[in-house]
Design brief:
4-stranded antiparallel beta sheet, NADH Oxidase
Length: 217
């Protein structure tokens, strides 16, 4: 393994405060959206977003992720039909009373029209093994690595001026089947991406306070 000198530019404390504050304000305005417009999004923007996600760190630099971008209306419809089948079962039989009570505050149900309306669906898969060699080898810290990459992805989507939703129909094996993914991959997350409708609404929520989420020792 070859090494090179780190390309690091130390910023002034004032610049660091400004950058961190500006980024905080930008991310505070990010919201999960369920009302998507079918307004097209330039492909280059999606490429940039995925390339940003791919800069995330990963265990042993295995990069155990695959981002499958769905734009074909026929495949989006297939995904919606399969997702709604699982969601209808979830809301009707699988979910506990407490879970449904928590979800009811947000007015969600088994119907998922955004899966067809959004111009792109980014389906994130985690690769449990590395099959790039003759003999498959284990990937390390797969869920953690993919989770970090998804965080980068969501920040990049918001930074680009688009909206998204982290959607997790359960179980999600149907995505692996519809998208014909190999056996070493498992569905991690389904993310519609695009513009919101002009009348899109989001629930009024609050985040935990700084003291609630952090402790310095």
């Amino acid at each position: 393994m070859a090494f090179q000198k780190l390309d690091f530019i130390e910023l002034s404390k004032e610049e660091m405060k400004k950058r961190s504050g500006d980024f905080l304000e930008m991310m505070k305005s990010r919201r999960s959206v369920r009302n998507f417009s079918d307004k097209p999004v330039p492909r280059q923007i999606i490429d940039n977003i995925i390339n940003t996600a791919a800069t995330a760190p990963s265990g042993a630099n295995k990069q155990p992720w695959k981002f499958v971008v769905v734009e074909d209306p026929k495949i989006k419809k297939q995904i919606r039909i399969a997702a709604e089948k699982e969601e209808k079962e979830f809301y009707g039989h699988r979910a506990t009373k407490e879970w449904l009570e928590d979800l009811n505050r947000f007015g969600t149900d088994w119907q998922k029209p955004f899966l067809e309306a959004a111009p792109y669906l980014i389906v994130v898969f985690k690769q449990v093994t590395d099959t790039s060699r003759k003999e498959a080898r284990k990937n390390y810290h797969v869920s953690e690595s993919v989770g970090i990459a998804v965080g980068f992805l969501l920040a990049a989507i918001h930074n680009a001026g688009l909206v998204s939703l982290t959607h997790t129909p359960s179980p999600m094996k149907f995505l692996q089947e519809i998208l014909k993914r190999p056996d070493n991959e498992r569905t991690y997350l389904l993310i519609p991406v695009g513009y919101p409708t002009k009348d899109a609404e989001v629930p009024i929520i609050s985040k935990k306070s700084f003291d609630d989420i952090s402790t310095f020792v």
